[in-house]
Amino acid sequence: MVSPYAWDVPGGVQAHIKDLARYFQNQGHEISVLAPALDEKDVKEDFVVVAGRPVAIPYNGAVARVLFGPVAATRVRQWIHKSDFDVMHLHEPAIPSLSLLACSIAEGPMVGTFHVAAPKQKVAFAIAPLLEPVIEKLRARIAVSEVARETLTIHLDTDAVVIPNGIAVDSFASAQPREEWQRELTIGFLGRFDEPRKGLDLLLKALPMIVKSVPNARILIAGPGEGLELMQSVPPSLRSKVSFLGRLSELEKASFLRSIDIYVAPNTGGESFGIILAEAMASGAAIVASDLPAFESVLGGGRYGLTFKNEDSSDLARQIINLSNNPSNRAQLQQRAREGAKRFDWSEVGPEVMNVYEIARGVTEKVSVGNEPRSWLRFLGREDD
Hints:
Number of domains: 2
CATH class of the largest domain: Alpha Beta
Strand order of the largest sheet: 12-11-10-13-14-15
Largest sheet: 6 strands, parallel
CATH topology of the largest domain: Rossmann fold
CATH architecture of the largest domain: 3-Layer(aba) Sandwich
Helix content: 25-40%
Strand content: 15-25%
Number of strands: 16
Radius of gyration: 22 Å
Structural class: alpha/beta
């Protein structure tokens, strides 16, 4: 497998690859993952090969840490050459990073998974004419949602089978809640504070209206970022209602989701799936999320969680108040969410991905190093006439 993003930076794609690799390891398969990393010492998994240090680029409303260029291409080629892969799984092969390099360099059974949802004008897809002959080398394509599939169809005029991201349902369902996080009616948020599209400012804007109707409500905010600046946007009289927990480990995240009453996903855009929603469902939290198409899909059109009008803090507050003041409705929603989360368990998702691998293999040839097209060499800036 190839990760386009820095392995030691939290992200949905990296988490998906990590869990998928562990699932297949437990099934008896040999796995190698090539990935960038900011610091190789922070990479703990024995199946990860670090290809180099990434650079930060703005991408899809966030900052992506990717690895590209001649040195990266050489490392990709060496990794493929010394291995004996039956199939290579490339994540996000349409963005300038390791997966795109690997797709260009390799020949044989290759599968691509497309995670991103981006409007047509995004700069990352401006090189579509160069991408198309490379992406055509993929024997099979996976999109993590219908939104991701539509993005792929728009930009690259190709199709994919939809297989959602996976989660280990039992690890969230059986996590131990923490008493200090359960003292009042607790609303939870998890995400990077420095990404406006995660919508934390929208939740904080809704806080006065929430507290007016639900005086015992409080908000727990987890994730990397500086909370002090954000706290300035909260009225002084309400600051005692907000707690910043900082970055959580995977175990702490599971406990966090098991401890809260309501999980809020106020994201404003750029989401193709919403893995945190599936995790919150498995944990038994009631969910309120913005009405992004990807979120509505995960939530079963309202069966597993409520949605509010995107970027409307008043509507967000109304939905939270509705759940807070109706414990029986909240309990029913939580129970349906637990049931709905089973669709995303690796026991369901893993075999679907393996079926795609088998289709891509077709015959028993191996992945090998090929010859990059000359136009691609020019794009890399390494053509030597």
